[in-house]
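Posted in: Protein Modeling Q&A

I'm a second-year student putting together a small comparison for a lab meeting, and my supervisor asked me to include a predicted structure for Della protein gai1. I've never done this before, so apologies if this is the wrong subforum. The sequence is pasted below exactly as I got it from our records. If anyone can share the structure token output, I'd also love a short note on what stands out.
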Amino acid sequence: MLSHPFGCAFSGLGNEETNDVELAHLLLASAEKIGNQQYDRASKMLTQCAYLSSSTGSPVQRVSYYFAEALQERLNRETGRISFKGGKKGKQRMEFGVPIDYEEGQMNPSSALLECHQKLPFCQVLQFPGVQAIVEGVALARKVHLVDLGLQTGIAWTILMQALAARHECPVELFKLTAVGTDDHETEETGRRLANFAESMGLPFSFKPIILSNMADLKEDLFEITEDEAVAVYSPFVLRTMLTRSEHLDALMRVIRNLNPCIMVIKEIEAYHNSPSFFNRFIECLFFYSAFFDCLEACMDQNSQNRITTERHYFGHGIMNIVATEGEERTIRHVGIDVWRAFFARFGMVEIEFSHSSLYQANLIRKQFAYGSLCTLDMNKKCLTAGWKGTPLHTLSVWKFH
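Accepted answer (user: helix_wrangler)
Welcome! Here is the predicted structure, written out as tokens:
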């Protein structure tokens, strides 16, 4: 029998706090009952969860709303009432390392992504040291070729452009950006914005989009690498999307290795959502997403449409897929940096340290946010980990091929 995680002492708590503690208990107990195939008892608990939770309430009520929905979906599937909420539907794109479903005409999720980038401290905290690592990696190159495996807003590359344009001892003759994406319109629009910015900086710039429906189709000759270019590769939340197809992941890494990059910067989710044990996976998932919802509460307005979009279309989808599905349908399988280190070693990759300048910039950016003190920065060996109130969320690591 699962004991109450917060004990039995509810005295001294307000109504909302009592409600939150009860919700946490009900969610854990419901997951345990489903794991033990005690569906009737789980169903009754989930009915209580639905009553107490809310998609517009406190952070606990909001995250509980999506976990209760996912648990109900899993219960429906296991008892024969299948609705396939965790599966694919319509168009998809990747944000925060999660495949997002959206239909044509629905609000563009880029607006929510941009506000999250502006207001969530760990987004920018990892951006600057990543850019600094690239700047240092191509310091002696006159022609720089950046390969972005998951171009989004392109904000980071405006910072890189400023740094390259400011070089006087070894001026940059050409900055090439090859962007891999699945949405040709958004990728090309970002390319146009970056081209205009480069022109304003007086930086010679070329942009090439590679639009693919499947990363397995990525080939070396698509990149048009020349011998006099220093190649840097940036991988933002891309590799984990291929964990269910290990042969495709292996093929991608071979392509990257053959590009002979001088540096590869990798940003990934720091979580363990790939356990074969449903209940263990549920616990890990609950801690991870609870930290995100708590961060949104601190950094964004409660009724912000972008916050609601982030919670529903980004995190809600991730929770549904991790909790409700199994087998090939469970496409979201986050793993931590220790797993990635073992994988990268197979391709002769060596992790390198961040410079003191990179780490200084990360801490400087963190302090500029109103709630920056709640954003935790830690080192996991040579890897930089960013989290919220001590819960790791993202990692940034830098690698070379040997």
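A couple of things worth pointing out for your meeting: Residues 120-271+333-401 form a domain with the Rossmann fold fold (CATH 3.40.50.150). Confidence is low (pLDDT under 50) at residues 1-11, 88-107.
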